[in-house]
Amino acid sequence: MRPLSARSVILSVLLGAHPPEAPVAELITFAEAFGIQPTTTRVALTRMVAAGDLDRTDTTYRLTPRLLARQQHQDRMLSATVEEPWDRTWRTVIVVSSGDPAPARAALRTSLRDHRFAELREGVWIRPHNIDLDWRPADNPRVETLTATPDTDPHHLAQRLFDLTTWAETATTLITAMDHTPAPMARLTIAAAIVRHLLTDPLMPTELVPDTWPAAHLRATYANYRHELADLRNSLLQT
């Protein structure tokens, strides 16, 4: 994997911080621990303010509302849980409008994917009805929702729609990489990849995945790394 840029290192620490802010001196020291020179960090901070990624108040940098919304969404997705037992129904969203502007169509598709729906065919999105990810389409006149029970084998349907085999293989690769990588920048890079992968976790019912399904292990791996990162940050503050 390509090492993270200074911008990505800064975002990694702020997206994982609550509140999502830090003094400039702390960000510079933190970035140095990953091999990034202070001058490079200062340039990145200036560019991030200009790009609308960060707000600056005196000597403190904070995520802007746009990235704060991203953090909140990321936190919700990473903490999402599967409701058991599953009643074998599937939540279905049907796009009933036509002729919408391309940006509106793209935004709806992104929202559905972010909330773990898969497209069965154009305009028809489904997933097992076993999670509540705070997506409320009832007020959207462009869609209709219903609960259905497919006649086909749910295991085959889940595999076809969500490509569970590939997701599991990637998760296992990331777990192995984190377990065998000692270098700080490489570990941070792997952790960022883990977050991206967890944000695509299909959150399947246990009935639809094998006993070796690695999602819980991957979440534990990331949780352990967050503790490691917090310990590093605290140790840097004490020096």
From TrEMBL:
This is PaaX domain-containing protein, C-domain protein. PANTHER family: PHENYLACETIC ACID REGULATOR-RELATED TRANSCRIPTIONAL REPRESSOR, TRANSCRIPTIONAL REPRESSOR PAAX. Residues 5-65 form the Transcriptional repressor PaaX-like N-terminal domain. The lineage of its organism: Bacteria, Bacillati, Actinomycetota, Actinomycetes, Mycobacteriales. Residues 187-233 form the Transcriptional repressor PaaX-like C-terminal domain. One of its GO terms (biological process) is DNA-templated transcription. Residues 84-132 form the Transcriptional repressor PaaX-like central Cas2-like domain. InterPro entries: PaaX-like_central, PaaX-like_N, PaaX_C, WH-like_DNA-bd_sf. Pfam families: PaaX (PF07848), PaaX_C (PF08223), PaaX_M (PF20803).
